[in-house]
Amino acid sequence: MSHRQKLKVRQAGAAALGSGCQKPADSDDPLQMHAEPVSGDQGVMLECLIEEFARMGWNAQQIAQLFEDPFFLASHSLANRLGRNAVNECIERTLRRCGVLRCSISESNKTQRT
């Protein structure tokens, strides 16, 4: 898709949402998201990502899928750099340490007595 086509799609989306956007999107849109590499310990980053999703209730299989999907740039890049085995071992180790948060909600039709 050309840059001009992307601008038209963005404008059409804004109009469809009723934002009243009259100004066309700039070619150097400051709100455009860009991934940037950062320095640091990749093992710590890997463990933090895994723990974050475990605390949201994701199981090992769901977390592992994040590292296979190129849409998730950080996790996918870590998997490519460290290898799938290292990722899977870290998932197991992290889940043993912190577990997976599980919540359930139940409703009762009983009325309270006063």
Main structural class: mainly alpha
State the total count of DSSP E strands: 0
What does the main sheet amount to? none
What string gives the helices and strands in order? HHHHH
List unreliable stretches of 5+ residues: none
Provide the gyration radius in Å: 22 Å
Strand content: under 5%
User: How far do the termini sit from each other?
Assistant: 66 Å
Number of helices: 5
Q: Which geometry do the CA atoms define?
A: flat
Helix content: 40-55%
Rounded mean pLDDT is 79
What is the secondary structure topology, with strand pairs?
Blueprint: H1 3-16, H2 42-54, H3 60-66, H4 73-82, H5 84-98
Helix pairs in contact: 2-5, 4-5
Main attributes of the structure:
single chain; 114 residues; 0% strand; mainly alpha; 5 helices
Descriptive overview:
This protein is mainly alpha-helical and 114 residues long. Helix 2 packs across helix 5 and helix 4 crosses helix 5. The mean pLDDT is 79. The longest helix has 15 residues. 12% of the residues are buried. The chain has a domain of 57 residues. The chain contains 5 helices and no strands.
